């Protein structure tokens, strides 16, 4: 079931959480809402669920499968919602928590006790919690609680599954396992899902599409590859991983940053404008000799434990830089801290500032 | 030889704290109660039974237990609403409202008794409207119930407030997203979560009402067989220098309230076991 949102605004008193958001989630996809805290991602999720209502001057529209549901409340939207802190019912055991959504149905639509049992057992198998149906939430680990919350949301056969920071409260190891598990689960059940996260790695790894949000607006939307390799704005570039920033000017279609010169197609439009150059740590290469147009730097620290070798440099003008090299390249170079070297960007993104002073 | 600490703690050892607790409880609670039993024991069994089952005493037990129960139940209901309002909503004067809840704790009981009597008597502010309806508030069992409700309110509100504050609003959102209507959310999610605290508040209000004296005697009218509470009957006996008789009635009340409170505790224990998987 697809989701379409148009003109979604929401304010809490003076604070504007959402500013005219438009978004389409295709049927059967797993979409991540990614952004820093206060970017409006959780509010957007709650608006989709019907736990908050959109406001603003333009008429907000929320369509599920091309049906307008803006007027419907959370009970009748048929969404499953997994809360950040799980919101499990503490006085009910795992079985009763999962069965809750079935038991509160109107008498005519309520399944028989045997069917409820069967459905709960099926869900326990799906979330790999067989044998724990008699436990209470207080007797479960964080990851287990998370899966109970998911099973409870799935019990009502939602057409849309919404997850608020699903892995936020878990430790790093459990998080990794659980997000791969969630991806597999989604491939199995194929329900249109939206999850909120502030962790870019999580969003890029799990989602089919990533929606990057900032200050109540959508900055960029696309596949993980898209947003990572073609960031639409400085914000997206910055938010999706470490980045080195250089300041410079635009001259004749090129960005000039001290001794570095980089092509900039945008630069033709605004000659003389300020330019910002963003380079990912793994897009910086190191040369031992200055062959012209390179940036001189000194190695401060080398950290070679890990999948890549991380270097901390201090470029001319006391500017700190981060570089990541493969182990092969690092062994070729034979460099040590304190040595003077030269840096060249292999790939970079230039953002020209809109205004000139 | 090896010596193992049970658990490291900043407070002094287990022996010292247990010893202190036992001594304190003995001096403050058990010793006076034991005296009560020895006093009552100065009567022979048949004398004791005669005093304890005297029709005037039995009438007073019925009134005291009945009115205390009614008062505690009324508090459980209305205290719940007051606590809910105080925790869930913010409105001008909330702090003041919150402070007023404690007044029945702070006021001398005789003062509240006189105030209640003034309001509920035939020509009082409320009593004058009840009179034409055939309801006699002051100087009747109803008056006793009103006084016992008055003094018990803070117990229910104050025990429920922290439990309510801990109850996340997310739970209600979760129930709604699963399709529960408001009544189902209340009955299946909110109420069971608050029930242990409500029960504690109810037990405290009930226990307080059983022993109440000051605020009741003014509004009750103290007619033997009709509106005489047990505490008053004990005072009457004492004034007649019938110490053994007073002690006998006191023992009956003591045992009755102990059994009731024990029952409440058992209920609470059972509920906790059933709903949290813990004892």
- The tally of beta strands of chain A, per DSSP, is 20
Q: The biggest beta sheet of chain B, please?
A: none
CATH H-tier superfamily of the largest domain in chain A: P-loop containing nucleotide triphosphate hydrolases
End-to-end C-alpha gap of chain A? 49 Å
Molecular shape of chain B? globular
The CATH architecture designation of chain B is Orthogonal Bundle
Largest interface: A-B, 30 and 21 residues
Mean pLDDT of chain B: 87
Structural domain tally of chain B: 1
Form type of chain A: elongated
Q: How much is the radius of gyration of chain A in Å?
A: 25 Å
What is the quaternary state of this protein? heterodimer
Could you describe the largest sheet of chain A, including whether it forms a barrel? 6 strands, mixed
Name the CATH class of chain B. Mainly Alpha
Furnish the topology, listing elements before pairings.
The complex is a heterodimer of chains A (357) and B (279).
Chain A: E1 3-12, E2 15-25, E3 30-34, H1 41-49, E4 61-64, E5 67-68, H2 74-77, E6 79-82, H3 94-103, H4 113-126, H5 142-155, E7 160-164, H6 172-189, E8 192-197, H7 200-206, E9 209-214, E10 217-222, H8 224-229, H9 234-239, E11 244-251, E12 254-257, E13 260-263, E14 274-279, E15 284-287, E16 295-303, E17 309-315, E18 319-325, H10 327-333, E19 340-345, E20 349-352
Parallel strand pairs in A: 3-8, 3-9, 6-7, 7-8
Antiparallel strand pairs in A: 1-2, 1-4, 4-5, 9-10, 11-12, 11-14, 12-13, 14-20, 15-19, 16-17, 16-19, 17-18
Helix pairs in contact in A: 3-4, 3-5, 4-5
Chain B: H1 14-41, H2 45-52, H3 55-88, H4 94-100, H5 103-106, H6 109-120, H7 127-130, H8 141-166, H9 169-177, H10 182-210, H11 214-220, H12 230-239, H13 243-276
Helix pairs in contact in B: 1-13, 3-8, 3-10, 6-8, 6-11, 8-10, 8-11, 9-10, 10-13, 12-13
